[in-house]
Write a structure and sequence with these properties.
seven-stranded mixed beta sheet, 572 residues, 57% helix, alpha/beta, single chain
Amino acid sequence: MAVVVGLDRFARDMQLGSVSILSFGYLVLWLTGAASSVVMARKFSALALLAAAHKGRLRGLPYDHTYVLYLRSFTEDHRLFAVDRVWGRGLGPVLGYLAGLTAGYNEAGNVWEERVIQYFRRLGHVVGVADPDSTQLNPGVYRFRLPEDVPRQEWHPAVSEAIRNARLVIIVAGIGGDGETAAGTLWEYTEAVRLLPPSRVLLLVCGGQEDYDRFREEAQTAFTDRYGNAAKRALTAPALPDYPFLERPRRQGRPHPLRGVIRFGPGWTAQFVRFDPTTQRGLTPSSRWRATVRHQIEPLLAEVESQLPGEAVIPKKDYRLRVLAVLAAGAVCPPFSYGVVHSSRMLFGEKAVVLAMVGVQLLGGLYSMTVSADTQRYFKVTVRLPDRRTTPWRGETGDPADDAGTLARLVEERSRVLGTDHPETLDARRLLATFQGRAGDPIGAADALAELLFEMLRALGHEHRLTVVTLGDLAQWRGIAGDPAGAANSLTQLLPRLVRVLGADHPDTLAFRSNLAMFRGTAGDPVGAADAYAEVLPDMLRVLGPDHPATVLTRNGLALWRDRAGGRGLTT
């Protein structure tokens, strides 16, 4: 309105051959507003978001445990890229938009995805996986493409690694109309449950009850299909709760895309945290939603943050844009207001309306810039990780009981500093079980390794080096505890995987081959034991040398079982 009136006055003054102070003030205000719009557009427009998304695709993933991984079905992108009508419904939102009070960066003008994700940026840099079949860049979170050398049908290992290294994984609990097209998201959900502790997984509910119920049903089916023997492996699908209703549905107004989150506690017990703006005070839906953010969302995120690795550092608000706006208003408003008040061409009511509209527009602009500054700082959140250096393992001292005590303290330290699922922590637990067996408790060592093996399978997978070595250690201590035949059978089945994962000449592979020969003899097959020792001894001589302790033990074992076999069936 101020711009229209100003142009009208300016045109009249030009016809009269002179420009009044009032018209000059209008013109300066118009130019200042245009310049501010250009600056804001460059920072917050859809084109800027597209450019940021493009850079995010090329950059790849940040460092371990410093990012929030955003996962969703690619079919959900069509819904999450929707935009609400900017003005909303009713006279109140329209007047608020005209006054600049509802046109901030995180208001209705953004796509749904951005409106949902903006609250989680305070937990770390939010990144998502780009749709490999999409060539269109959309505004929203940064997306990274999988490595080009990874075939599309073999994307599971790359995404699994991204899940394992994420500080937090947030998954949209929606699969669209076709569950077949969301098989990847359902696999990602089951993988996150397998790899991460419950505190590092959140489900985002962005749809209605029907959409959520469909996801809950398909997730249960996907978990059962992937882990058919879940009860045996202690991997059970989390029981997702029912969709809660609003306390006062009539006060809802235009719903926000983020309806709630599902968080998980110990044992993967699920809790549906419904964000209910109808319980908050406020004259408009926007004010009630802002109260919901303050009283429901922010306390929840603070609690989630306290259970994540590292510490998210949020920079202070940047008020430079607001200061510039205040300085511009301070330079423009006095001559403009003076011209309006002393204008002989305007009636008193017209003067009051113009000044009121300009004041409201100015306050709305300042508020919008404040909201933008508050939101923009979450893009610059950094995650400060603690010092992850731990006391190194110095090796055995010759006293197994003393070594077991040292390793117990090392396990406690690494669990606190690195986390219980870190490979170094798991390896320290494996060594602790080994020295527990050497200290005279082979049954306890076998039990500890069996418990550890399940956690390694969940955290590292079947083909990880530590997992394979732990399988060999478990077979060994079960054999020493009284089941040599079972140990020989387990090591025989494990040997091809040892060769594939560690290599044929790895010292652990050679050690397990020597142990296999020993258990064959202990189980009553001296000929097989002598043959196995004779096969592994040349490899040990070549790789380890004749004076290595393992080579000496193998040479002695060959002599022992060759003597017990009486020279029958021996290789030379």
